[in-house]
Write a structure and sequence with these properties.
The structure holds two protein chains of two kinds. Chain A contains twelve helices and five strands. Chain A has a domain of 250 residues: MetI-like (MetI-like fold), CATH 1.10.3720. Chain A is mainly alpha-helical. In chain A, a hairpin with a 2-residue loop joins strand 1 and strand 2. Classes of the chains: A mainly alpha, B mainly alpha.
Chain lengths: 410, 432
């Protein structure tokens, strides 16, 4: 009878560090750690020496200093006496604004173009293919600049709208399209609690309406399941949406701030000015990213097997309902992951605002503030920190949504 | 019954009636149009709307293009020639052609050098793109970077020569040592290259570039579309190997290496390229030794390479994840070690899967090279926005210039994506 004996225990030799799989990964990691530590030390040392030579230090106190520059397009109060920190906040809000707007319109363009590209109308599908290829293959920076120059070069100056006998009348008496941007009426409240509280109240009413309609629809669904007859909820829903809103707006004293051609001899006053840079950036980003989203949508729809369409048709559904009820809900699962990365791309590409002078975070913190204070390292680090946080947040939110539409497997 | 044959009944047909032609609206163009353009009310409306749109676009652009003026010295002269008619002023392209292509500082008598480098690039890139070409051509590809560097930057030939010798030495050492252990070969090759470069660098005499055959051109004089091409080609070819390394690192069992790669990739993918270019232009120089001057072109190449390497790493990670587990196990059971398994089994398959993704990243990267205009490098877009639109002759001319830039980029990017589709069909080995 033979007994299993351990192999003779070999003495540790130095070559085992490289040749023995038990130690090898440890060796490599130690080497890597040393290399990384050395390079960090080398870079850090260079940084310290360079900073000392230039008489600089790392400090964020410049964020409290007055900025000294003005920003036209802003969502919060700001003037040139405000601090660099506040300028950065204005920039952050502007970035979020244009990213939010562009995400919505890009999705719209993308879904329409993607669905139409699969249309059995030859001309339409070719036109959409043309749109996708043209916009995907030309840099977005060129698109932003082209659209910006179209606005600034082909629209009239605000002066054309001024005076009693202006060269141009305002469209519907409400809108003025100028080379500085579009002037639109802007609502404000004469009564109520003043400031942002009024807007919060309006939003609260809208949210309440939304949940009320959900209750109504759920009841209708229950009734339909019980009796087979669905009560008509259209009027009720419309009432729930409109009546409280109108009442609240009336109570708060809603009125409109109109662009006024007579207030001033040099420029239009009043109304909300949507600046040309914002329009150019918004439109270019949405139409460019829309082309990518169109491809994702097309791929998603094509990934659904033809049997689904045929089964739905066999149930007697019409063409539009097949798309809405059967194909799109399934295709969404394929479309959403690439859609998330397109939204991330929009957020990151919005940094190109600096090319047309839209005051986003890159243009304020990374542009003017950086040039005025010379705090390159601090500004660029803050800038990267903001974009990293934004990217991570967006992908987190969208991943949660993605998980909620995922196939439920038990 | 018998007389039926001799005395045919009047109502029985004698032969078959020849098929009558299908109705006019069921054949040819009409049928095609009925099926593809006017198959329903909705489709008809869509067709009509798009026809009107196409007509409007053509009505406005065709005269503009056809009446184009190709010879003039300024926008005012252009308008004089046109005399009120609509028409483009393409003269800006012919007059500023060298600026658009080479930038405004590249020496005029040296334009043949980038041209030659471009032609050689086509030759060098051909064996990489098309596998049917003889493999010997890869020697040209290997030599190309050094030749192109010498042609474009000029100066003494010793610099690219020393770089080449260093690479050859590295390859030689790798062949010798790499047979037994990949790691030994790898580190040996790096050391060999560093030794040769340092020795060679010390041997190059000071001021050798002054009276060289090709006059030296500093990096800041590069510009125009040439700069876009150079950045695109350099960064793509550098970022593919780096991306492979990062992807393998991210898959590694070693926690330290894995986390370094993960953090690097996620960090780079989370920030826009512009911020990285800011790093290149205002921040990176703080991290180099105090007395060194690393020029802007190199700093930009470093940052763009890191940027696209992170994206390529994610694409390749997808390819690696798509391989069945059995491939890894088969390689292990054959007794291959990690470098061998990767080189012979895993990477060839994973890279094949990732080719379309890598090409997408490459196209995106090439488009992104226009962003360098933001940090005041004069690439094609930078040239248009800066010197040309600011000049008194051509102020206010947008469509022609940006249309030209758009066309150039479209041709290159569309070409690359068509190649990628062709390659995908070519590499498809599954039978469907």
């Amino acid at each position: 009878m033979s007994t299993m004996t351990d192999p003779p225990k070999a003495d540790f030799r130095l070559s085992m560090l490289i040749n023995d799989t038990r130690y090898r990964s440890l060796t490599f990691q130690v080497i890597a750690a040393i290399v990384i530590a050395l390079s960090i030390w080398y870079l850090g040392n260079n940084l310290i020496q360079n900073l000392r030579a230039a008489g600089l230090n790392i400090s964020y106190s410049f964020l409290g200093d007055p900025s000294g520059y003005d920003i036209n397009q802003r969502l919060i109060e700001y003037d040139s006496q405000a601090s660099h920190g506040r300028a950065a906040v204005v920039g952050i809000l502007n970035t979020l604004l244009v990213a939010f707007l562009a995400c919505i319109t890009a999705t719209l363009f993308g879904v329409i173009a993607g669905v139409l590209r699969l249309s059995n109308n030859w001309l339409i599908s070719k036109l959409m293919a043309f749109y996708v290829e043209i916009f995907r293959n030309i840099p977005v920076l060129i698109w932003i600049l082209i659209i910006f120059f179209i606005i600034t070069a082909s629209m009239p100056a605000p002066r054309a709208y001024l005076g009693e006998d202006a060269e141009r009348g305002m469209t519907l008496g409400l809108f003025a399209f100028t080379n500085r941007g579009i002037y639109v009426p802007f609502p404000y409240f004469t009564g109520g609690f003043g400031g942002i509280a009024n807007w919060l109240l309006v939003i609260a009413v809208l949210v309440a309406s939304y949940f009320s309609t959900r209750v109504v629809n759920k009841n209708a669904q229950l009734k339909q399941e019980k009796t087979g007859i669905r009560p008509n909820t259209l009027l009720l829903n419309a009432a729930i949406w409109l009546v409280p809103l109108i009442v609240v707006l009336f109570l708060l004293g809603l009125s409109w701030d109109l662009p006024d051609p007579l207030a001033n001899r040099f420029n239009l006053r009043g109304g909300l000015q949507i600046g040309a840079p914002l329009i150019a950036l918004w439109f270019a980003l949405s139409i460019y990213t829309g082309a990518f989203i169109a491809e994702n949508v097309r791929a998603g729809i094509q990934a659904i097997s033809k049997g689904q369409t045929e089964a739905a048709a066999a149930l007697g559904l019409r063409q539009g309902r097949i798309m809405n009820l059967v194909i799109l809900p399934q295709a969404l699962r394929v479309i959403i992951p690439p859609l998330i990365s397109q939204y991330l791309n929009i957020t990151k590409n919005s940094s190109l605002a600096i090319a047309v002078g839209y005051a986003d975070i890159t243009a304020t913190l990374g542009g003017i503030t950086l040039n005025q204070t010379g705090r390159a390292i601090e500004c660029v680090l803050l800038l990267m920190l903001f974009y990293l946080t934004a990217s991570l947040l967006i992908s987190m939110v969208m991943n949660i949504y993605n998980a909620s539409v995922k196939l439920k497997e038990r | 019954m018998a007389d039926q044959t001799t005395n045919p009944i009047a109502f029985v047909a004698e032969g078959t009636i020849p098929p009558s032609p299908p109705p006019a609206n069921e054949v040819g163009v009409v049928k095609w149009m009925r099926e593809n353009l006017f198959s329903g009310v909705g489709n008809t409306i869509l067709t009509v709307i798009s026809l009107i749109l196409i007509y409007l676009v053509l009505k406005n652009t065709l005269p503009w293009i056809l009446n184009g003026v190709w010879n003039a010295n300024s926008l005012a002269e252009c308008r004089e020639i046109l005399a009120g008619k609509t028409g483009a002023c393409f003269a800006v392209l012919t007059e500023r052609w060298p600026q658009l292509i080479y930038g405004f500082k590249y020496p005029t008598d040296a334009y043949w050098r980038p041209n030659l480098a471009f032609v050689l690039m086509l030759v060098a890139i051909a064996p990489v793109l098309f596998f049917d070409l003889p493999r010997k051509l890869l020697i040209i590809t290997a030599l190309y970077p050094f030749v192109a560097f010498w042609l474009i930057w000029g100066g003494t030939i010793l610099v690219p020569l020393v770089a080449l010798i260093g690479c050859v030495a590295a390859g030689f050492v790798f062949q010798k040592l790499g047979k037994n252990s990949f790691a030994a070969g790898f580190f040996g090759a790096i050391i060999a290259a560093l030794v040769v470069w340092n020795l060679g660098g010390a041997l190059i005499p000071e001021g050798a570039s002054e009276n060289a055959v090709l006059s030296p051109v500093p990096s800041r004089d590069l510009g125009g579309f040439m700069l876009n091409m150079m950045l695109g080609v350099t960064c793509v070819s550098l970022s593919v190997p780096l991306g492979i390394a990062l992807a393998l690192g991210r898959q590694s069992d070693m926690p330290l290496i894995k986390w370094v790669c993960v953090i690097f990739i996620e960090f780079i993918r989370g920030v826009p390229l512009i911020t990285l270019l800011f790093v290149a232009s205002v921040m990176l120089s703080y991290f180099f030794p105090p007395d060194s001057t690393v020029d802007l072109f190199l700093r930009v190449v470093i940052m763009i390479t890191m940027f696209s390497a992170a994206y390529i790493a994610e694409v390749i990670r997808g390819g690696l994840a798509a391989l069945p587990r059995g491939q890894y196990e088969a390689a292990d059971s054959l007794g291959l070690d990690y470098p061998q398994a990767m080189r012979l089994i895993i990477l060839p398959q994973a890279l094949k899967i990732s080719i379309p993704g890598i090409v997408n990243v490459a196209v995106g990267l090439f488009k992104d090279t226009t962003l360098v205009s933001v940090i005041s490098m004069f690439d094609l877009v930078g040239m248009i926005r800066g010197p040309i639109l600011a000049s008194t002759e051509w102020q206010g001319i947008y469509w022609e210039l940006f249309g030209f830039a758009a066309l150039l980029f479209f041709v290159v990017c569309y070409g690359i994506s068509q190649y990628s589709q062709w390659l995908e069909r070519r590499l498809a080995t599954d039978h469907r």
